Amino acid sequence: MARPIVAIVGRPNVGKSTVFNRIIGDKLAIVEDKPGVTRDRLYGRGEWLDTEFSVIDTGGIEIEGEDQIMKSVRMQAELAIEEADVIVFMVDAKAGITPADSEVAEMLFRAKKPVIIAVNKVDNLKRMDDIYEFYSLGFGDVVGISGSHGTGIGDLLDEVIKHFPDTSEEEYGEDVIKVALIGRPNVGKSSLVNAILGEERVIVSNVAGTTRDAIDTPFEKDGQKYVIIDTAGMRKRGKVYESTEKYSVMRAMKAIERADVVLVVIDGEEGIIEQDKHVAGYAHEAGKAAIFVVNKWDIVEKDDKTMHQFTQKIRDHFLFMTYAPVVYLSAKTKQRLHKLFPVVTNVAEQHAARVATHVLNDVVSDAVAINPPPTDKGKRLRINYATQVAVKPPTIIFFVNDPELMHFSYQRYLENKIRGAFGFEGTPLRMFTRRKS
Ligand code: GDP
Ligand code: GDP
């Protein structure tokens, strides 16, 4: 199920990052606990009344030059308009409506996306009166909040989730594998789509600034139905946008949310850079199946060790995604292209795989027998049973005597044993621990 995306836009210093941190709360900790996962706060996960969503603080998108603030706020708004499901437009109760606020309001108004105005810095009841002037910006939903006190955040989220799109209806049938291609500019995403489709349906150009209106592309290969999900990342907006990491991550978010399988495209010639990590990290956290596709293999100088060494580099950089297979190919010469789709189909199957409870428990019991959980302050973890409760991605709950005793390293040991028994190649596994004695 695609998680809705919430974007927070607004001028610098209105309190966007303060409120962002309030919304994601301790959710971020889940990500940061894991070695290898990036610590940059490009996005976070929020949850309100059992509804999960992604949230991005669009702040920090900055560009050089005069009229900087206005330009960067405009860019944030454009990004939010393109990719978010709900926009939280943050203003400052103390400052009142500024010209920059009015301009953003106009942009958002034209976009016809749900917009909630969060009037921040309403630190006490007296300030509540200050929120009324913001109704004049023309949006119906105006909520007074205080990021520093944490007040009004619940009211804000009530409004936000009311406007989420209905995702209960699947866009495509269960038998269709939805594939998204992500990666930084120029790694060859559009070329790869062309090569896959075998015809020039997507405009490719090495001149920055080419635009196209992307749409999903359904196709069939060897009796299996697929659809290539529109990746806004393929649209080219020009250097300023492309150089902004936060921007490219957010553009990929929506496509990732809608996909089953994410192809993380890497430039084989240029190698891996930090930016590759962020989009891949998002795919991992969104619980999608993933494949590393090393493109431009035609121009890489290689011997019999090169592939092995490159794979090792990928493993070192993406410690959190050791489950993802690596495919080497060339979109240009179509060399090794035939190797890709069998892998796509396989990881899609693994992503949707379900294991029987008794078989899972046999594997867990054996794992515990070989390597019992260490004691912690005289207490030892006891796993009563495990069961898979969901697919896409496979999600396992361990019922234990005390969830506090399940340490990260032991959980990873169990994950390795489970993968050893069932494969689950290409898909992340979610694991939860619940108390039950
Ligand atoms: P951003 O640039 O929009 O991300 O804003 P920040 O979150 O960095 O906040 C800017 C400043 O406003 C910081 O000094 C915050 O401590 C302060 N601030 C944030 N929220 C509140 C609030 O609710 N009340 C008050 N009085 N100050 C706040
Ligand atoms: P995108 O920005 O990720 O969509 O990348 P493009 O598909 O536009 O490709 C960027 C540049 O890389 C273009 O000049 C392509 O011709 C070139 N390119 C793409 N795939 C390959 C490949 O497999 N081999 C070589 N040599 N060049 C490629």
* Broad shape: globular
Under the CATH scheme, the architecture of the largest domain is 3-Layer(aba) Sandwich
User: What's the SSE pattern?
Assistant: EHHEEHEHEEHEHEEHHEHEHEHHEEEEHE
Relative strand content: 15-25%
Question: Roughly what percent helix?
Answer: 25-40%
CATH top level assignment of the largest domain: Alpha Beta
Overall residue-averaged pLDDT value: 84
Number of domains: 3
Strand count, sense and barrel status of the largest sheet are: 6 strands, mixed
If you consult CATH, what is the topology of the largest domain? Rossmann fold
Low-confidence stretches: 28-40, 200-214
- Strands of the biggest beta sheet: in what spatial order? 2-3-1-4-5-6
Structural class: alpha/beta
Bound molecules: guanosine-5'-diphosphate
Features:
437 residues, alpha/beta, Rossmann fold, GMP Synthetase, Chain A, domain 3, 3 domains, six-stranded mixed beta sheet, globular, binds guanosine-5'-diphosphate, ribosome binding, GTP binding
Helix-strand layout with pairing:
Elements: E1 5-9, H1 16-24, H2 27-32, E2 44-48, E3 51-57, H3 68-83, E4 86-92, H4 99-111, E5 115-120, E6 142-144, H5 153-162, E7 176-182, H6 189-197, E8 217-221, E9 224-228, H7 239-242, H8 245-258, E10 261-267, H9 274-285, E11 289-295, H10 306-317, E12 326-328, H11 340-351, H12 357-370, E13 375-376, E14 379-380, E15 383-390, E16 395-400, H13 408-422, E17 430-435
Helix pairs in contact: 3-4, 3-8, 8-9, 12-13
Would you kindly provide a written description of the structure presented here, covering whatever features stand out?
InterPro entries: G_ENGA, GTP-bd, GTPase_Der, KH_dom-like, KH_dom-like_a/b, P-loop_NTPase, Small_GTP-bd. GTPase that plays an essential role in the late steps of ribosome biogenesis. This is GTPase Der. With about 425 residues, the chain is of the alpha/beta class. It folds into three domains: about 5-165, P-loop containing nucleotide triphosphate hydrolases (Rossmann fold, 3-Layer(aba) Sandwich); about 175-350, 3-Layer(aba) Sandwich (Rossmann fold); about 355-435, GMP Synthetase, Chain A, domain 3 (2-Layer Sandwich). Helix content is about 35%, strand content about 20%. It has 13 helices and 17 strands. The protein has helices spanning about 15-25, 25-30, 70-85, 100-110, 155-160, 190-195, 240, 245-260, 275-285, 305-315, 340-350, 355-370, 410-420, and strands spanning about 5-10, 45-50, 50-55, 85-90, 115-120, 140-145, 175-180, 215-220, 225-230, 260-265, 290-295, 325-330, 375, 380, 385-390, 395-400, 430-435. The strands form four sheets. It has a six-stranded mixed sheet with strand order 2-3-1-4-5-6, sandwiched between helices. Strands 8-9-7-10-11-12 form a six-stranded mixed sheet, sandwiched between helices. It is globular. The model is unreliable at about 30-40 and about 200-215 (pLDDT under 50). One guanosine-5'-diphosphate binds near residues 10, 14, 16, 17 and 146.
